[in-house]
Amino acid sequence: MKILVTGGGGFIGSNFLHYWFRRHPKDEIINFDLMTYAADPRNLVGLERYNYMFIKGDIAERELIGKAVRDVDAIVNFAAESHVDNSINDSSRFVHSNIVGVHSILEAVKRYGKRFHQVSTDEVYGSLPLNSSLRFTEESSYRPMNPYAATKASADHLIRSYFNTYGIGATISNCGNNYGPRQHLEKLIPKTISNALEWRKIQLYGNGKQVRDWIYVDDHCSAIEAILKKGVVGETYLVGADGEVPNIEMVRLILKELERPESLIEHIKDRPGHDARYALDASKIREELGWSIKYNISDGMKATIDWYRRLK
Ligand SMILES: NC(=O)c1ccc[n+]([C@@H]2O[C@H](COP(=O)([O-])OP(=O)(O)OC[C@H]3O[C@@H](n4cnc5c(N)ncnc54)[C@H](O)[C@@H]3O)[C@@H](O)[C@H]2O)c1
Fold it and tell me: From ligand 1's centre to the CA of 60, what distance in Å?
């Protein structure tokens, strides 16, 4: 298979490249990435031994992405602005990469008739009440609550409209919060590990009771693999690991693992419009595609901490 991976220099995209080559060492992958601040060349170390090529470019550049799409069997799009806090400060880049960029990929996919998979987020469904047992399903309504989520929701709508109108071969996955190696230090888990290792304060928004549905990044990668191999075009798959944990508990778990005191936690003013809880029902992908997770939080977190320790 020859795959175009967009956004492969970032967190999940680079883990996907390593995951895919471990499982399919004879395949060919082109990584197309603008290498923004969120990308890290160290994420790509080791790929040179495979049939791997890199193109530096912006997915919103129609001609460049068109040429890359033309020559592959399938496209998996990870490229996006991904940090909610940045989208609250200025969402221009989010509109550019997450909406205009996806539109430009769709135009090429339509033109050349290629298989396309979009990596999306559970944040498109908005927020669930704390202390409830409600969970998102593929049938849940879209209610994005911050600019990042709104741009990802827009992209999902565009993709469905292209499937419905032009019959493109597209699938979408909406995944919960990922953790694992190769994530930018701006995000909660790497920031907590890195600060704890240095005995620095760990800032938590509000009371830290916001619940996220955590999944180890390799489990997300195996879900995307299952969708590419067995998924039905036009369908959406929720990807989750039944990993609901409040942010403060995740931080406590890391502190315990690193033998650091909880006094390092510092509560700061809450993020505006902070979603209370995300929780996913991933029955569809488990039952229809036979996908399952391999990592529990304890094993996944150990592997994650090891990675950041080695980076020091
Ligand atoms: N991190 C999570 O927990 C999570 C959960 C669910 C879904 N997602 C989605 O998964 C995808 C990957 O997330 P991530 O955490 O790896 O993000 P990331 O910020 O770590 O990486 C994004 C990558 O996209 C590249 N990029 C950004 N704009 C680009 C453009 N215009 N053209 C080409 N490349 C561009 C960046 O250089 C970077 O390498 C995103 O679409 C995100 O919405 C993330």
Answer: 14
- Ligand 1 contact, 86 CB (< 6 A): no
Domain boundaries, the chain: 2-181+214-242+278-294
Please indicate whether residue 65, judged by its CB atom, sits closer than 6 Å to ligand 1: no
Distance 96 CA to ligand 1 centre (A): 13
For 2-181+214-242+278-294, CATH number? 3.40.50.720
Query: From the alpha carbon of 36, which atom of ligand 1 is closest?
Result: 37
* pLDDT tens sequence across 60-96: 999 999 999 999 999 999 999 999 999 999 999 999 9
* Helix 101-112 × helix 147-166 angle, to 10°: 20
Single pTM value for the model: 0.98
156 carries an active-site annotation: no
Q: Is 138 noted as a catalytic residue in this protein?
A: no
Cα–Cα distance measured from residue 242 to residue 122, given in angstroms and rounded to the nearest whole number: 13
Indicate the pairing of strand 2-6 with strand 74-77: parallel
Instruction: Count Cα atoms within 13 angstroms, Cβ side, for 129.
Output: 4
Angstrom distance (rounded) from CA 109 to CA 76: 11
Q: Which of 176, 178, 179 is nearest to 193 (CA)?
A: 179
Residue type, 99: I
Per the annotation, the verdict on 123 as an active-site residue is yes
pLDDT digits (tens, 9 = 90+) for 164-205: 999 999 999 999 999 999 999 999 999 999 999 999 999 999
